[in-house]
Amino acid sequence: MKKENLLEKLCIILVLVIPTIVRIIISLKIPLFMQGDSRADDYLYVRYAKSLLEGNYLGTFDGYTLVKSISYAIYLYINNILGIPYRLSLILFYILAISALVYTLNKIIKSTYFSVVLYLFLLYSPVMLHNENIQKVYRGGVLVSSSILVISCFIGIYASEKKMEKILWSIFGALSLPFFYYVKEDSIWIMPFICVIILIYCVENWFLIKETRRKKMLNLLLIFIPIISLLAVTVTYKKINQRYYGEYTITDRSSTNFKNVIHDLLVISETNGGNKEIWITKQALEKAESYSPTLKKYEPVKKMYDNGGVKVYYGDLFFWSFRYVFNDEYSKNGIKINKIYGKIDKELKNSIDRKNMDKSKELYLSSVAKGLSKNDLAWLWKNWKKYFVVLATYKYNELSVDVATGDSNSINDMMQITNTPAVTQEVINTEWKNQYRKVISVVQKYVVGAYQKTGKWVFLLGFLGLVTLPVFVVRNESYQMLSLMGIVVGLLSSVVPLFIGVQWFSNFLGYKKFYDYIGCAVPIMQVLEALGLLMLVRGTSIIMHKVKKLRRKDV
Q1: What global pTM score does this model have?
Q2: Which string of DSSP letters, residue by residue, matches 259-320?
Q3: In whole numbers, what is the pLDDT of the chain averaged over residues?
C-alpha cells in the first residue's frame, strides 16, 4: 500500500514538473518586442526603472512623470537588480501565482486530481501566451499574475485552519495587494471579490467558529491587514509624490489639475457632440477655448486638429494629444504645467457654472472617462455577447516576431533593464527569425489553438456545472460547498464589472484591444470553468450512483 502511494505521488510530481519545465522553455524561446519609441507606455516604465536604479525616484518632473503608477517600474527595478532575464522572471512569477491559487483552492475542494488539472489548465493558459502580456516590456503579464496572487492570499486567509498559515497569507496579502493595486490605474475592480470574502469570513468567524473572543478578533485582524497595508501604502505613495513633485496624488488622472481640466472638457462635450467613441469633440475644445483665455493662449485646437492633426480623437486618445500640447512646450517643468492646468480649470469651472452645464445628465464612474448615458447602457446590453465570445474563445490571442523600435539609446536602455537582447533588424536577417517563428507557430497551433477550439464548449459545460452548485450547497451538510459558493460569488462580483468596464472603455478600439485589456478576467474565467466542470462530474457521479442503486432494488 505504501509503495502504491509512493508511486502515485511520484507520478503526480512528474505530471506537474515536466509540463512546468516545458512551459518555462517555451517562455524563454518567445522574443520580446521592445518599443523604445513608446514614450508614454513601454519606454516610460523603463525610464522610471532606470531612475529608481540611479536613486532619483521617478526622475525629473515633466509632463510624463506622473502618467503611470509605480508598481511595474518597481518590478523592472527588482528584476534588474537580481539579474534575471525578463522572460524568465515573468513566467516564474506567473507559476508562483497559479501555484498559490491552486494550493489555497485545494483547502476547500480537497481533491489532488482536480488541483493537478487546474494547475495544468492555468499553466498553459493563452493569457500568458499573448503578445500584449509576455512580449511587450509592459505591465500586462505582471498585472495578470499579481491579480491571481491577491485572490490567492484572501482565499488562503479565509480557508486556512492553522494560525501560522493564516498569518503568512495575511503578510503575503499585505505585500501583494498594494503592489497589484498600483500596477494599473483601474485596479479597483478586485475590491468586490475582497469585500465578499471578508464578509463571509467575518460571519463565519464570529458566529460559526467556536473560539474565544480574543482569537476571533485576531482572525478578523488578519484578513483586514492587507486592506490596512493598501491604505498605508497609498498615503505614503502620495506623500512621496508630494515631496518630490509637489503633487499629493498617485497619477495625474487623480487629484490633480490635469484631471480637473479633463473632466471639465468631458462635461462641456456632453452638449457638443460627445458620444461613446468620441469622448471630447473638437467643438467642445473650441467652446472651452472661448471660456478660458489661458487655454486659448496655448491653441490646443490649432495644434491638435488644424496643424496636420487628426479629424477626431477617439476615447482617451484625446488626453494624450492634449498632454502633448503642454509637454512639448514645457517638457522639463511639470510644476509650471500643473499651474497652467489649475488656471484653465478655474476659468472653465466659472464658465461651466455660468452656463448651467455643471449638472451633468450622464453618470461618471470616473472623472477622466466618458459618462454613461441611457444610449450607452443600451449599447452595452446589445453588444456584450459579442465581446464575451472574444473572451471565452481566446479569438484574438496571438504571438509575433517584431523588430525593436526607437533610437539605439532607448533600445539599449530596455535591453539593460530587462537583461534581455533585443530583436533588431540584424537579428531578423539571421536564422534566429526562423527559429522564433517556428516556436511561435507550434505554440499558436497546438497550445493556443487547442484552447481556442475548445473554449466555447469548456465554458458552456462549466457554466452548466456552476448552475448546479446551489444544489450541492443545499444538500451538503458541511461548509465546504458553502465556502466554494462564496468564492464563486466573489469572483463573479469582480469579473463582471471588469468585463463591462473593459467593454465600455475599449469600444472605440475594437475587439483585439478589448482582448488585450481583459487579461485579468481570463484566469478568473478559467477557474470558474474548472469549478463548474468539477460540479458537473460530481453531479453526474451522484446520479449514476443512484441509478445503480435503483437497478439493484429492481433486481
Answers
A1: 0.93
A2: HHHHHHHHHHHHTTT--SS-SS-HHHHHHHHHH-HHHHHT-HHIIIIISS--S---TTHHHH
A3: 89
